[in-house]
Structure prediction request, 176 residues.
Amino acid sequence: MTHDTPSLTTPQARAFEADAASGFPNSPLPAVIYRRVFEPEAFDASALAERFETLFTRHGWRPEWRYGLFDFDHFHSTAHEALGVFRGHARARLGGPHGAEIELHAGDVLILPAGVGHACLQDEDGFSMVGAYPPGQRWEVERGDVQALAAAKARVAAVALPDDDPVGGELLRLWR
Prediction:
């Protein structure tokens, strides 16, 4: 394996049930984390971001931005999301305000099915990611609304499964 070739270990997967108390639909599909897809020590941050963008594009996911993770719980009901960490590390929460904490490090990829809440709780060393989405899916930011939960769940259920895993791994097996 060269530094340019992604390393795909068995991903971590965790599903989150709807949180009616906070209005987060979440998803029966699990959030998936691939650890150290690329060795961050082998690249500067810009080169690592480019590696993620190239990898996501190769697998049909459109890279759209380079940024951090919002520090408030939110979700996207109209798109699945792939996040490639290219700088720093963070403690994040998945599943909304009552969810679970995870650690993310440069080289990791987090794939969120539509509806899964996420927020940055603490970040260090300029934490930044590449965000990518399947073709035809447009993301928006929602913060959870108890009154609108049924409508959000319906939008989440209508989001098509992607044609490929953004890193070429086991996502489709885990999501079917």
Remarks:
- The longest strand covers residues 118-133.
- The chain has one domain: 12-168.
